[in-house]
Amino acid sequence: MRQSFGQLIRQARKDKGYSQRELAKLLELDFTYLSKLENDRADYPPKEDVIRSLARNLDLDEEELIFLAGRIPQSDEDFIKQHYKVMPALFRRMQENPDFARRVFREATQPNQEEKSD
After folding, report:
1. Per-residue model confidence as pLDDT tens digits over 39-48
2. Cα first-last separation, the chain
3. Are 5 and 70 in contact, with CB atoms under 8 Å apart?
4. In the chain, is it the N or the C terminus that has fewer CB atoms within a 10 Å radius of its CB?
């Protein structure tokens, strides 16, 4: 089973040897807020800059942590807003056709052919 956002940052913090207070000070956060994040009890997901700072300080993947926190990276959010009319159809098709969804994900995670030739 995949770890929650809170479980992942708690484990990474412990692996790095930080106390909650030490990490909170490093991130310039209140340690009670960090505690709420680690226990998945925050009222709302942290802002993207907080998530990126957590990821950098805990050696975690920034994009993965953003999604795990329930956010969408700003660059992706901008793209979705530009194409909001077609998104429901795309998501429906992906849900109804797992092979199509796998193809989309495979294409999205493979380097672009143009990037390979540079």
Report:
1. 999 998 899 9
2. 39
3. yes
4. N
